[in-house]
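JOB MANIFEST
job_type = single_chain_structure
chain_count = 1
residues = 476
[input]
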Amino acid sequence: MDVTKLKRAAEYEWIIEPSGGMRVTAILFASEALIAAMDEKVREQICNVASLPGIVRAAYAMPDAHWGYGFPIGGVAAFDASQGGVISAGGVGFDISCGVRNLTTGLKGAEMDKVRVELANALYAIVPVGVGSEGKLRLEDDEMDRMLAGGARWAVDCGYGRPEDLERIEEHGEMRGADPTEVSANAKKRMRRQVGTLGSGNHYLEVQVVTEVFQDEIAKAFGIEQDDVVVSIHCGSRGLGHQIGTEYLKTMALSAAEYGIDLKDRELACAPICSPLGQSYLGAMRAAINTAFANRQVITHLAREVFADVLPSANLRLLYDVSHNTCKVESHEVDGVLQDLYVHRKGATRAWGPGHPDLPPALRAAGQPVLIGGSMGTASYILSGTEKGMSAAFGSACHGAGRAMSRHQALKMHSGRQIIDELRGRGIEIRSPSTRGVAEEAPAAYKDVREVVEVADRADLARVVARLEPIVCVKG
């Protein structure tokens, strides 16, 4: 991206002043090096977002921002329904409620040395992974609707997990306002046997070791310390979410003129929040959020079964579960007035600051755990939300490293078999049904996650708490 087209507001904050139909400014959080590495399309897309009806304050791009469908991945924008604000399917993305869940185990790194291969094999055997993967759980129509309405609470009620898990999931694992009747038969059909599966692409289940703690008091509140073994699960709403996104993007694009919306980019298709179409999408999207909650909950149950067999002393407790492809109604202060806004986060993680009433009591003083996945074979991070971040970007932070090259480029440059062998030499066991998929997700295909989280920390969007290094990765 051409840095000369931006105004530097602070060391890690860049502004694009309104022009050409922009209703608000666009703000990018990044180092100069990350800005220079960003595709020019990011600047174009965040400016298009800033032109949408009813947008409030600014359109934001996180440090891991890269080109996406309509919205840049790493984009954040909030809309006021009373001012004609819109809901955008492109602003949520196709993998609705894709997110990360982290569990502590009570184990230490040394305990993994002799069981690493066995554990990798056992997790790979029990958690279905890959394109179109299906699990043993089959949902008939009535049970499907209960899952769409109940999310992780439905899963726990069915015996997949513990009631206390729900306290550590955003929305307590049950997104209110979900409407299964707004989910098409095709979307439900695609999900019939996909609850409890990882899918493909950058989704994974990783066993990790905490290799460094940066904030002792916050880490203590989170229940983690150096050399702890943790488990991270990264996945979303699978085929159901993708089908909902596909269907509503098409309908919104065809209906834009009817609602008087001039789209700068067809991929930014949207509808007024208060319109019948807007309300229909919200009902379906919330059902997809519940699907993702249920999916990660069932995978957690499967992982617990494996650990109970391989490492009986383990106790997998949920630290937190948070999504990074959603639109939520949230209260934020704008010009000194508290307003209910529809906050879109696409490839951006909610990051509530200390004291937020929606956080579990045990975590409230420390702020929300912000779970940042690295690329395969590189570190992941746990951060915590900050007070400044609440006002700087509607309580949002980055969600991962962010791609530096396309999957096609990565495939041309890397061999999946070679990557698996190289990582095994570093003590990381990879299990995947596709060496092609491994090549597409090569660590070199992503930005340096250390630089991304460092910017999030220094821009005070979220505070870096701990670094996690992988030792087992089950990968789509």
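[summary]
DSSP finds 14 helices and 19 strands in the chain.
The mean pLDDT is 96.
exit_status = 0
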